[in-house]
Amino acid sequence: MLFVGHFSTLKMNLFLNGTIFERRMTYEINFMDRIIRNNHPINLETRSLISKRYKTITKAVNGDFWNSNSETAHSKYVGSYGRGTAINVSDLDVLIELPTEEYDHFTSLTGNGPSRLLQAVKKAIQDTYPRTDVHGDGQVVVVKFSDGMKFEILPAFRNLNWLGNWDGTYIYPDSNMGGNWLSTDPKAEQEAMSNKNGYDRSNGLLFDTCKHIRAVRANNFSSYHLSGILIDSFVYSAIRGWHWRRPEDISCDNNVVSYEQSLVDFYNRSSYWSIYAPGSGMKVDASKDWEVLGKVLNNIAK
User: Fold this and answer.
1) Predicted confidence (pLDDT) per residue in 144-201, tens digit
2) Residue 96 to residue 185: CA distance in whole angstroms
């Protein structure tokens, strides 16, 4: 929604530390400058297409590695789509679990085992999508469709402890620097994000903020990369006690507080080396995207 040549006033309520701060915010030109509740939904048509392609890719990998034609087994959404913070233009991250014996095989190979694993997964997908751009990229297999939708497939293995029990985390390949194996805990991250987005916590403000940052980056800073896990991890910490108003909250009309400015202030007090993923506590590499995050936050708060 655009407002050109005139102003529009919007009243929004945010809540922090026991007091509601009613924002009567005036917008000029662009209504999207500030965070709006339940904005940036992914439309049903796009969700249906995502689901269709997700099932097709999953079936292809299951066929080669599990001798199965299941469209859903061993596969789950991760990344922003799995955490609930994706928008229409977000990449789709999918973790596909592979049999443990495949891990034993690729770790026993000389040379870059992770790269060879990515090539094997790439072949499985390319057999199903022969005219689609499918290629390995560091830690994932990228499936880029002609309409711009992009899937990033992360092949992974259950991380077993010394007793042979799964600890809930996954091991995945990193083909950079000669090859390595890393770990991830997407379930812990998804649960932490979902809990903090709940009615008794941020009441939806967490997801709305993460989505809005993505939208502003896509609209105003499209030439810059900004990691989704950096966005979500930063907002998870920066949001503190802020939440959308609940019916039982008590209103106070005498204060005007900018939630968006509080995000900028938190950013200015933070450093790129101090960002950790919610739930898993894993270190987030923010070195390349930290300045871009600052640009986006300042654009939102101005």
Assistant:
1) 999 999 999 999 999 998 888 999 999 999 999 999 999 999 999 999 999 999 999 9
2) 13
The predicted model scores a pTM of 0.88
> How many domains does the chain fold into?
2
Q: The domain spanning residue 73 has which CATH number?
A: 3.30.460.90
Tokens 């009615």 identify what position?
199
User: 3-class SS at 74?
Assistant: coil
**Domain around 124:** 44-184
User: What Å distances lie between residue 297 and 199, 235, 244, 277, CA to CA?
Assistant: 25, 11, 19, 19
* Residue that is last in its domain, among 138, 154, 184: 184
- Strand pairing category for 166-174 and 150-160: antiparallel
Residue 155 identity (one-letter amino acid): P
In a domain, 39, yes or no: no
